[in-house]
Amino acid sequence: MQRRTLLQLGLAAGAALALAGCGFRLRGLDQPVVAIDALALEGADSDLARQVARRLESAGTRIDEQADLMLNLGQESFRERRLSVLDSGPRDLEMTLEVPFSVQRRADGAYLLDQQRLEVSERLTVNDDELLAQDDLREATRERLRDQAVRQLMDRLRALNPQ
After folding, report:
1. How many other CB atoms are there within 10 angstroms of residue 1's CB atom?
2. Burial zone of 89 (CB within 10 Å; 0-12 exposed, 13-18 middle, 19+ buried)
3. 161, 150 in Cβ contact below 8 A?
4. In three state form, how does the secondary structure of the chain look?
5. What is the model's pTM?
6. Any residues with CB less than 8 A from the CB of 111 and at least 6 apart, and which?
7. Burial class of residue 14, CB neighbours in 10 A (0-12, 13-18, 19+)
8. Do the strands 77-82 and 111-127 form a parallel or antiparallel pair, or are they unpaired?
9. CA atoms within 13 Å, Cβ hemisphere of 4
10. What is the pLDDT along the chain (163 residues), one digit of tens a residue?
């Protein structure tokens, strides 16, 4: 039994060394997060907008009201859709966050990313017996959805060529 475990660990270590030695790298690991120096953030003051601003600043992009590029964030909207058919007991729901956005140049008003939508969803189970826990569960789900939407937005901005 110990010989088998030792052999498995040896093979795993050998495979890791072989991958490291051949120059294997995860795609995008050494690329800058966003190739935009400064960005103006327009739209409603919301939790999502504050999270986008924090993520952009941590990626090295300045938030500047006079920047050449504007990120227009629309109002975030949450929808709940009932997935289960029972009226009592635990119910399955799907919560969806949808946010419109666009990126445009300030100089000529041209859209680099014309009106697009971020849409993320997650399933959750709520129980009528735990009313207080339902609110906490819904709020935690909203936070996770915002985080996923910000990741999607960062991916789309990463693909943007600001010239």
Report:
1. 5
2. exposed
3. no
4. CHHHHHHHHHHHHHHHHHHHHCCCCCCCCCCCCCCCCEEEEEECCCHHHHHHHHHHHHCCCEECCCCCEEEEECCCEEEEEECCCCCCCEEEEEEEEEEEEEEEECCCCCEEEEEEEEEEEEEEEEECCCHHHHHHHHHHHHHHHHHHHHHHHHHHHHCCCCC
5. 0.74
6. 102, 103, 104
7. exposed
8. unpaired
9. 1
10. 587 787 788 778 777 767 666 665 555 554 546 778 889 999 888 899 999 999 999 888 889 898 899 999 999 999 998 887 766 667 888 999 999 999 999 889 888 888 999 999 999 888 777 766 788 888 999 999 999 999 999 988 888 766 5
Q: Which residue has the tokens 């941590």?
A: 58
Per-residue tokens: 136 = 């906490």
| Token pair 């953030």 in the structure block, residue | 41
Question: In one letter, which amino acid is 64?
Answer: D
Residue 153: alpha-carbon gap to chain centroid:
6
* Cα(42)–Cα(118) distance, integer angstroms: 16
Tokens of 137: 């569960």
